[in-house]
Sequence to fold (1824 residues):
Amino acid sequence: MAKKYVYFFGGDKADGRADMKNELGGKGANLAEMVNLGIPVPAGFTISTEVCTYYYQNNKTFPPELEGQVNDALQRMEEVMKSRFGAPADPLLVSVRSGARVSMPGMMDTILNLGINDETVKGLIEQSGDARFAYDSYRRFVQMYGDVVLGLKPETPDEEDPFEVLLEAKKKARGVSLDVELRPEDLRELVDEFKAEIKRRKGLDFPEDPRDQLWGAIGAVFSSWDNLRAIAYRELNNIPDHWGTAVNIQAMVFGNMGDGCGTGVAFTRNPATGENIFYGEYLMNAQGEDVVAGIRTPQPINRLQKGDSPEISLEEEMPGIYRQLEDIRVKLDHHYRDMQDIEFTIQKGRLWMLQTRAGKRTGFAAFKIAVDMVKEGLIDKETALLRVDPDQLNQLLQPIFDHQEKKKALDGGRLLAKGLNAGPGAASGKVVFNAPDAEAAAARGEEVILVRIETSPEDIRGMHAARGILTARGGMTSHAALVARQMGKVCVAGCGNLDISYKDRSMKVNGVMIREGDRISLDGTTGEVINGALQTRPSEIIQVFHNDMKPEESIIYQDFQSLMQWADEVRRLGIRTNADQPDQAAVAIFFGARGIGLCRTEHMFFEGDRINYMREMILADNEEGRRRALDKLLPIQREDFVGIFRTLKSYPVTVRTLDPPLHEFLPHTEKELFEIARLTGKSPEDIRAKVESLHEVNPMLGHRGCRLGISYPEITEMQARAILEAACRVKKEGIDVHPEIMIPLVGHVAELKNQRAVVDRVAKEVFQAEGIEVTYLVGTMIELPRASLTADEIAQEADFFSFGTNDLTQTCFGLSRDDAGKFLQTYVDKKILEGDPFQKLDRTGTGQLLEIGVQKGRTTKPDLKVGICGEHGGDPSSIEFCHLVGLDYVSCSPYRVPIARLAAAHAALKNR
Amino acid sequence: MAKKYVYFFGGDKADGRADMKNELGGKGANLAEMVNLGIPVPAGFTISTEVCTYYYQNNKTFPPELEGQVNDALQRMEEVMKSRFGAPADPLLVSVRSGARVSMPGMMDTILNLGINDETVKGLIEQSGDARFAYDSYRRFVQMYGDVVLGLKPETPDEEDPFEVLLEAKKKARGVSLDVELRPEDLRELVDEFKAEIKRRKGLDFPEDPRDQLWGAIGAVFSSWDNLRAIAYRELNNIPDHWGTAVNIQAMVFGNMGDGCGTGVAFTRNPATGENIFYGEYLMNAQGEDVVAGIRTPQPINRLQKGDSPEISLEEEMPGIYRQLEDIRVKLDHHYRDMQDIEFTIQKGRLWMLQTRAGKRTGFAAFKIAVDMVKEGLIDKETALLRVDPDQLNQLLQPIFDHQEKKKALDGGRLLAKGLNAGPGAASGKVVFNAPDAEAAAARGEEVILVRIETSPEDIRGMHAARGILTARGGMTSHAALVARQMGKVCVAGCGNLDISYKDRSMKVNGVMIREGDRISLDGTTGEVINGALQTRPSEIIQVFHNDMKPEESIIYQDFQSLMQWADEVRRLGIRTNADQPDQAAVAIFFGARGIGLCRTEHMFFEGDRINYMREMILADNEEGRRRALDKLLPIQREDFVGIFRTLKSYPVTVRTLDPPLHEFLPHTEKELFEIARLTGKSPEDIRAKVESLHEVNPMLGHRGCRLGISYPEITEMQARAILEAACRVKKEGIDVHPEIMIPLVGHVAELKNQRAVVDRVAKEVFQAEGIEVTYLVGTMIELPRASLTADEIAQEADFFSFGTNDLTQTCFGLSRDDAGKFLQTYVDKKILEGDPFQKLDRTGTGQLLEIGVQKGRTTKPDLKVGICGEHGGDPSSIEFCHLVGLDYVSCSPYRVPIARLAAAHAALKNR
Fold:
């Protein structure tokens, strides 16, 4: 039997199912599923992703069996839809759309109204009774086909679409301003002018045979899998290149066939807030792309959403259709047990569903829908956990505008405009008017707001770089809103009052002129656009932490706690935090950290007098001089640790001894240098000489970490004393303190042995003097390849390991974090690296060093406690790897603790 | 049965054997062996090294069984020597000496004449009939015991020995200048004064009971295993601390009992030149330490050695003894099949042998003796190979003085003096008068000659640091001569004409005043000391290479070729060289290299105009500008490769593409900067800005290696083109050329794939244009941990691997070679590292990366060619490791090729 490449759907039966996304893509699989659920869907068929693979492997040709299967499917379509493709009377028109395993909105190409030619257009006029509609459809088809299949689409945003130019010229010639004001003859003329333009530019006759049109469109959609913006999108979303896309050919239904026609998109729940409210938009007498593209701002779907606005909702306009849609909404929401993003078209009073798919949502919404669906009994807790991307939790913690300050700004008349609250959150920044400028400014470290009339897929990188996005056109399902929600960006969309001039790099808003570089603020939760910068204040959850809000007042907080508890029930990894101060530690504990995995002592040496004592120590001529300076630092460090131990109570605290090279503490400016000379009584020349003598060619690989403690044992001694004296004192206060002293940059067991001996000796002395003993551990960072490779030896001297994956990545790759920026993007662009290995742990290379380290360490000590305290400890993919290699805990920055908790739960669930 | 700790030797039977060095130490094992060979040896016994281990593990106490075993052995000694320990009449005196597995000359303590007290001294007078001798022995014993056992020995060279002070005072009081002029009463008084001094300084009564003396001495010798100079010596010679020393207690025989007495040391062959000539020195009426310590310059042992000098040889003085000694010499040389270093004492006309051991020798001698013994049928070729330390071969290649220049210097009256030719070779440098100064000067990069009246074990580090050593006193077996030979240092010893003032830091030599910092030259082959610096010229072997000498004229060259051929017969590893120029490559091929393992292209960019083109390339604003500059470099590079390919002929040539960061090529001074501005027409500000923009925090981990070729493919393209065009051209000349293109700093297979694609594309173009094809390989350096860990992936794109162990060590340890100098010595001092891992490959850590890399690489490609081109490729221990992990070849600098050949043979022989 020949291989099955084509899957039919229509009537009440489909070849495919929802779980066949790998073969049919998301759109095709869900169209099949809807048909099987008895939901009205225009008939059609899906060409499987296998054909895409074949296409790219065989020099852009199709498997020989394909043509026959397409013809068979087309025939079934004709039977179900009771009209014929290419027939002059009552012709069947089709859409040709891409559909990958996961949605890549707007990234690939689509052709609508396919099947029209000079013959069939007459049938269409007859069928619709509307020559204007028929010629408008023809005009749209030729334009789309010319753009997508024949390659007339402009390559940069600045170029104009040649068809748009002709359209504008026609409107001007007819003295009208709107498309709909053009007469059928005008549109017929435009069709001819479009075809002439294609002939002029490409030397091609427009294909009249609908089958030629169809095969051209199929090829163009497959080809669009490898266009630049699709590639960029896949990179950003880690979608493998080899997945390929399916192609869906579906009977056209028309929302623009006059009265009783319309089209819309909706979400089964609110995609921005997650509320269980039917949420959508529609346009009467329009095609679907009009809603998505943001060219006309659509109407609300129901009364609730409409609120006080003078618009007319679908619920009011077509109550019967609305009720039918509402039923479908509930059916789909419950069937898929997830919020759906649906598209529908009403053709002459009949409802057709064109798409359903899991809806993109903000972090807020993902989180709220997941928790709500558990409450509603639709999903279990574990499914809820997997529905929330850990990184999205960030949004719950992101600042909102300070209420007082915002009120003052509004009262002061600084409100510029109000748009749709498409991406919740608060953002302030300088205005830029195009995506490359946003990227460039972000690269310089500036915070920018990207302002566009409407966004398009070409803008993705710029949107990623911006703090917030503001558009003049488009609704809640416009490109800008969709992408912003997915990225977790603050976004105000469809803000009609903006009068943007790209040329002048400025916009007029209600009479106020805003130029490039001026600051504005966006409240993505309310849709307000405010002139000037605004202070932000903490999110609700953070307010609860600060006792500025009671837990019972905040539903967000309560839901957040529920989700975190569910995560705790399934995760195996412990969660600690990287914190150097009591206040940081308190935040982390509030978020669920159960210990400090990395307390860096060097940060403590920069404040106040400390830096001077530190410099005195470094500049000392001998051990005695160093000890004198260290004696001054001792009580200060001890107080620091007392504060931390009191905050952490019985949770363990891992303190790392001094790590950075000493030159980091020395003065860098002449002024500082003279100040230090004055303080130490040394000559500026001596100090300059010392600074120079400490200069290193490769400080990352230099005199730092335990190498300092070995050269100057008195430093380790002072630090051990400060830690252990502090521990003794808080123990006397009744706290069951658990200090863990961590020696950095160990590459050889003898280094750890040497430093451990210092700590153990000091411990004895301290316990003697304090008259009390404290249980303490001595362990090491594993942050050098040699440490991993000899972990069996090192474990003999270590009570615990903590992987320092920042340095481990640097040494494994031979890549300096400080210098890699200059070429890492080239590496990603040329597909040499998938991404920045300092953000997401490189499992193939660096990961082996973790595996080896854990395995060898536990060969020596089967119960060896092993954690991670590099920045990867807060990255979900890296956390999963830590789970897989058997780490005991991850440690991350305080605000990433919730993310780590959820990611640890994901890791446990996905790898059962 | 109780554990055997004590091994007796004496009469004609010994408990031990020569192969029991681990238990008895070298000295004890060989004393036992001599007894078993029927050679006259004073009776005695050896306390085994196990006792030393016990002693250190048990808080410096002895095993309980020891005392009984010592008493038993003492009794057997008394029986054989027919005298009693501690007996007032005819007392037995003993020596107590250390003896480790390998000789550590002068590093540990010795006590002689033990057993004398106020009672037994009378028996000694009776026995010898010489009160002066008896009291002199007593005086020496108390002094030695006081120094060594009771701790009065000065700790620094500047302090005076309190006993010497008293001795000098006595001589002054008696108005005499020599020790021998003191009368017996003077010496008896000195004994009392010495004891009083001990009482005064230490509050101790001198032990009168010989058994107390004995146990004190045994403890002191064991303790001396851990004195600072012994530790330093072990570090320098890689002797493990846990080996411990044995202690030898042996009946004293006296070379200083008047007429018919004497003592000497000799070598069975010449230890400096290796000639098969009995070579030694003796002193009449002296104890052995007088010869070794260099206090009196001894007499030659035979007529041959004496030559024209007015001295009297032992052959003339005591012909019978000499004949007996000559017989023993042949017996030992043949029995041990190796050159022996022997000590003997003649007591009243009777010859006693006190020691035999393998003699220390220069590299010259080691090599000559090994080759000669093969010719003599004493040893086989493989034994001969193992007799030569690969590093010693260096000496055969080291320069000698230019004959013409030296003749001119001598004719010009610049000969200062002539001493003993104790360490062959030529050295010039600034004079320093103490070891710390020598160390400090060497650390500053200065070449110095260390001048001492005599050297002592405290001077070892300074001797190591100096280029040459000159002493005023001591013979061919003095400390200076011995240690210099072992280190391969140029040394002139016993140069009596030097009048050295340590205080004034100057010396007078035949009326010429030489001050600290003045330059002198030493010819260690002739013993000449010459005023001022002298040019050197190549060694004989190098002269053969340059056709300045015919092979048949040089025995050294012929013997060298023999040894190298034997090495080639057993080694498995191939040998290549690291060479960037045809002349370097030619040297390496002469020495036996069979290919280039690393040709660095960057060195080619610094000469002449090239650096300007290079800078033009770097400063270009775009690819076009870079290509323009690269076009100028192309023909130059191509010519370089033509030269190299012509030299290497059919041997493979591995060329590494550009490796260092671009900023290394940019101007560093303002003057250069302005010059470049002039040449490129850019403004100095622009150039300065570019230099600054290329600055890196950690250049070692920065934008270098293949990262450059990936950012700027046009560089790799130009280099590939230069290599392959050159290859095509020499192939047209009839050479079977084998270029291998090596991509540096690969950490990810995609990097290699990217660069390989560039090379392969260029190759196609070049072969097309040249109309000829050349077989070429593309491979990679494995010099990052990630490369080793993912070698299975990388091997998919690599035709060969070459380990870059310099960078691999840096990244494995996280240690910058440029910065490690500041603390590496501390690490060695504190025993954290055994030595510099950049010199000797760290097998435990970095070694694993080699093993993993080879194993994973060959999993993908079983026949993958793997080599090493880091500096470890010329280090014998590292070469052995390369052999063990299955590398195909090592590549090293041209002058280390012979060393590598021999080391590869050693590796094969030792690991069969």
Residues 623-648 of chain A form the longest helix (26 residues). The two ends of chain A are 39 Å apart (CA to CA). Residues 109 and 221 of chain A are 5 Å apart (CA to CA). Chain A touches chain B through 49 residues (CB under 8 Å).
